[in-house]
Amino acid sequence: MQILTVSQAVAYLRELLESDLVLGDVWVAGEVSGPRTQPSGHTYFAIKDGGAQLRGVLFRSAQVRQRRSVDYLAQGAQVILHGRLTVYEARGELQIVVDFVQPEGVGLSHAQFERLRTQLAEEGLFEAARKRSLPRFPERVGVVTSPAGAVFHDICNVLRRRWPVAEVVLAPTPVQGPEAVPGVLAAIEALNALGEIDVIIVARGGGAAEELWAFNDEAVARAVFGSLVPVVSAVGHETDFTICDYVADLRAPTPSAAAELVAPDLLQIAAELDGAARLALRLADDALVGLRSTVGGVLARAGQAVVDPDRLRQGLKERERRTLLAVERLERERSERLRHSRVQLAALDPQATLNRGYAVVHKGGEVVSSIGAVSQGDNLTIKVADGGFAASVAASGRRRRAARAVARRNGGSDSGERGVQSTLFP
Predict the structure, then answer these.
(1) Model's pTM, two decimal places?
(2) Chosen CATH of 6-123 out of 2.40.50.140, 3.30.470.20, 2.40.50.580, 2.50.20.10
């Protein structure tokens, strides 16, 4: 026989309790006794009836999820608790770890409803920001409901009247009883799998709360939340609320109202299109009138801008006459300037100078312009009007001046001394 320590025995008992599916998700009704809230925020109490009592704890995290939970745990209050049974090993005490509290008078079903609603709201399944808008002109409308009731026929009648171009796809399912939850789940999954559904209506007619209970199931709520297309919930009458209503993208008070919400009114759309067409025609007429006025103004200004051809021709002839006169004047001025330039060039022509009896002396290809540029015996070229001839220097400038001085004294000339040789004079 195995001998266990106290810790082992209590731990084994705790594992047995926490592994039990029933005790891990249990509802307990009774009277609250000795509630006390610690500085940590956890509340400890006992719940009892005429034959037994059970220790309980409501941790601070659970109080945050359900804001009035501590208020319900007043001394002597009759409540319904939800939680899991376990063992507090330090004292070996059986206790229930509570996550939800409701006054006993509301009933178990309402308590279960409120607990699930609180849980899903905390997870964000009801957030308005995640809800999708419905398509304005749906082509295929999926319907999750029973084919036997009047709900589906009511939806089809409304869609046929308002928006006959839409195709209605029925995903049949029981809407109450034990087959309702798996049927609704399968129907939503099937419509999403088609891939061509624009919006889904989850519908059921009115009934008692118990008959609508399948639409308060957590699995149905998560299926609606996970739908790939927008979902409209139309379960029961206007005063009936289910978890499905909170999760859906839009809630309708009745199935017929859901059909009106998902489909536009064909007559209204036709009226809007007719009004838009009339407005477009009126705007087009107004634009046409404006264009006609603009064109008329342009034509009037164009008519005013048209020039008389005869007057234009006369003006062109006058401009031609003035142009010819200006050209003739410029030609005369050009000729006069040319003649004057020729006269100036003629006056500067070296040949003209030679024709007047002058000569040009070259030494080695360079023009001689000074006596100092030549010496006795230099060979020169003398260019005159009709040609040139060679010469040489007979005497330097100083000797020539001395010879002229002697000749003047003697009353004679020194030209005989040069013969055919050239003598330069200053």
Answers:
(1) 0.52
(2) 2.40.50.140
